[in-house]
């Protein structure tokens, strides 16, 4: 089912939880599957780290470091990147802006 969705899509938004490193690992796997299914790495992808609102009171909850992740996503993968809080509607408009680029 996922492969069918990937083959028919033109762009992707991959979301992970900044407080759960395993979710970023899943993003890596899905990104690889997108490239494999599409047969190219020239696919518009935006990677979104969600739940930054949980870090306001306790930064120790962060399991996926911002600087490292931003570097991997924007430099190594050449994809868009933003961190958001869906609960607080923070940086959500940036996701749609990056997708349009």
In terms of topology, how is this protein built?
Blueprint lengths: L1 H7 L3 E6 L3 H18 L6 E6 L15 H11 L3 E4 L8 H9 L1
Parallel strand pairs: 1-2, 2-3
Descriptive labels:
101 residues, GTPase activity, Small_GTPase, 4 helices, GTP binding, GTP-binding, alpha/beta, methylation
Walkthrough of the structure:
It is found in: Cell membrane. Keywords: Cell membrane, GTP-binding, Lipoprotein, Membrane, Methylation, Nucleotide-binding. There is one protein chain. With 101 residues, the protein is α/β, with parallel strands linked by helices. It has a single domain (2-99), classed as 3-Layer(aba) Sandwich (Rossmann fold). It is 45% helix and 16% strand. The chain contains four helices and three strands. The chain has helices at residues 2-8, 21-38, 66-76, 92-100, and strands at residues 12-17, 45-50, 80-83. A three-stranded parallel beta sheet has the order 1-2-3, with helices on both faces. Strand 1, helix 2 and strand 2 (45-50) form a beta-alpha-beta unit. The model has no long low-confidence stretch (mean pLDDT 94).
Give the SSE string.
HEHEHEH
Strand proportion:
15-25%
- Fraction in helix: 40-55%
Biggest pleated-sheet summary:
3 strands, parallel
Shape: globular
CATH topology annotation: Rossmann fold
Report how far apart the termini are.
28 Å
Low-confidence runs of at least 5 consecutive residues: none
CATH class, named: Alpha Beta
> Which structural class is indicated by helix and strand composition?
alpha/beta
* Strand segment count: 3
Across the major sheet, the strand order is: 1-2-3
Number of domains: 1
Mean pLDDT: 94
